Amino acid sequence: MSNARLINTYFIIEVIDRGWEYHLTIPSDLKDIFDVDMMSTGIGEKHDVTELLEIVQNLFFNGELDLN
User: Fold this and answer.
1) Is residue 28 within 8 Å of residue 10, measured between CB atoms?
2) Which letter does DSSP use for residue 43 in this model?
3) What's the longest Cα–Cα distance across the chain?
4) Distance between CA atoms of residues 58 and 63, nearest Å
5) pTM summary value
6) Do residues 37 and 46 make contact, with C-beta atoms less than 8 angstroms apart?
7) How many C-alpha atoms does 51 have within 13 Å on its Cβ side?
8) Which of 8, 23, 41, 48 has a 20 to 30 A CA-CA distance from 30?
9) Exposed (0-12), middle (13-18) or buried (19+): which is 36, by Cβ within 10 Å?
């Protein structure tokens, strides 16, 4: 008999900060970023992956990012 289960779900999240626009591929547990596509440049230095992950986590925990 066969069986299957969902291992993980991925989201593509758009983040815009200081004019920088990123598309992030991130798992549903928000613990890592698998891919970053920079869509446009902005003011100042671009964010690294750790900073982008912190932005997404803070938005989620402050109720400003709904993943449903």
Assistant:
1) yes
2) S
3) 57
4) 9
5) 0.83
6) no
7) 9
8) 41
9) middle
pLDDT at 32: 95
pLDDT at residue 48 in the model? 95
Q: Which amino acid is at 25?
A: T
Q: How far is CA 41 from CA 3, 5, 19, 66, in A?
A: 46, 40, 6, 25
Domain boundaries, the chain: 10-61
User: Sign of the C-alpha dihedral, residues 42, 48, 53, 59?
Assistant: negative
Query: Position of tokens 């970023």?
Result: 33
Segment 4-34, tens digit of pLDDT: 887 788 999 999 999 999 999 999 899 999 9
Instruction: Fill in the amino acid letter for 1.
Output: M
